[in-house]
């Protein structure tokens, strides 16, 4: 029957028969290149794929040179940065993809790291490193043990310690603050701050609390609070006055049927 012959022919054909086309181009290793059809259109690929995964745009479809092309890949140190086309337009990535998935991202440069080490005041396992927020671009300092520890602070450490609890001191406005207890710690002008042990006021845990995005106060990780400042339990004193308590669940008791 005709339908049987069609089914046999369909099974004999491969997807490559419809999506590849021979060309006179060769790859960097001298292998013939073919035109393939991908999610983002037609492109040149090595005919020995997947043994050799080199690809590039069709002649005439090359994107204008982009900043960083030709540089050594900073992630693997072996590949070169090349211009590519993706779902969201042109970008610069490593030539060794998918063995290396580096993509150069536009934006401000990474922040400078502290010239001294500051132990995380929350768990003591890591140290504070400078990071840049993706949404705002602002610099903050977070624990190097993230995501195991999510401690962050928006105040820059100065390298000094609070003499009462050895908590790291940060600059907050015109004065300093202990990241462990929240005490106010004046910063002297005629003293080398790095490694100094400074006297301060009484503990002030409220200074370590900052408003959450929803309007309530929050403490612990991602807030700049000190050690031991975990998330507040529902209904506890750590919640903001505007927080709404969760509705209580109703429990329905069922009676077992009496014996007949």
Spatial order of the strands in the main sheet?
13-12-11-10-14
Uncertain runs with pLDDT below 50, 5 residues or more? Answer: 219-260
Outline: elongated
**Biggest beta-sheet profile:** 5 strands, mixed
Q: So how many helices?
A: 2
Order of helices and strands: HHEEEEEEEEEEEEEEEE
List its salient traits.
2 helices, disordered C terminus, 5-stranded mixed sheet, 4-stranded antiparallel sheet, elongated, mainly beta, 16 strands, single chain
Q: Can you walk me through this structure?
A:
This protein has three domains: 1-60, no CATH class; 63-106, no CATH class; 128-218, no CATH class. The protein has helices at 2-12, 16-19, and strands at 20-26, 32-38, 41-46, 55-56, 81-86, 89-94, 128-132, 139-143, 152-153, 157-162, 168-172, 175-178, 184-185, 197-198, 210-211, 217-218. The strands form five sheets. It has a five-stranded mixed beta sheet with strand order 13-12-11-10-14, with no helix packed on it. The chain has a four-stranded antiparallel beta sheet with strand order 1-2-3-4. Strands 7-8-9 form a three-stranded antiparallel beta sheet, with no helix packed on it. The chain is built from two helices and 16 strands. It is elongated, with a radius of gyration of 30 Å. By secondary structure, it is mostly beta strands.
């Amino acid at each position: 029957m005709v339908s049987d012959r069609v089914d046999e022919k369909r099974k004999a054909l491969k997807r490559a028969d419809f999506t590849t086309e021979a060309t006179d181009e060769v790859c960097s290793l001298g292998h013939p290149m073919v035109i393939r059809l991908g999610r983002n259109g037609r492109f040149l690929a090595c005919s020995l794929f997947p043994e050799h995964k080199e690809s590039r745009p069709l002649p005439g479809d090359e994107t204008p040179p982009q900043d960083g092309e030709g540089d050594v890949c900073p992630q693997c140190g072996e590949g070169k940065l090349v211009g590519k086309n993706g779902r969201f337009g042109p970008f610069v990535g490593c030539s060794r993809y998918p063995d290396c998935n580096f993509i150069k991202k536009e934006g401000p440069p990474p922040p400078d790291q502290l010239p001294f080490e500051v132990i995380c005041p929350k768990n003591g396992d890591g140290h504070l490193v400078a990071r840049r927020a993706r949404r705002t671009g602002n610099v903050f300092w977070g624990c190097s043990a993230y995501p195991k520890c999510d401690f962050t602070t928006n105040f820059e450490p100065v390298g000094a310690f609070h003499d009462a609890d050895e908590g790291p001191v940060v600059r907050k406005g015109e004065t300093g603050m202990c990241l462990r207890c929240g005490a106010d710690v004046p910063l002297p002008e005629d003293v080398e701050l790095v490694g100094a042990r400074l006297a301060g006021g009484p503990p002030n845990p409220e200074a370590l609390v900052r408003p959450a995005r929803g309007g309530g106060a929050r403490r612990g990780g991602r807030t700049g609070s000190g050690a031991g400042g975990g998330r507040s339990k529902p209904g506890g004193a750590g919640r903001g006055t505007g927080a709404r308590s969760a509705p209580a669940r109703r429990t329905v008791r069922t009676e077992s049927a009496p014996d007949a």
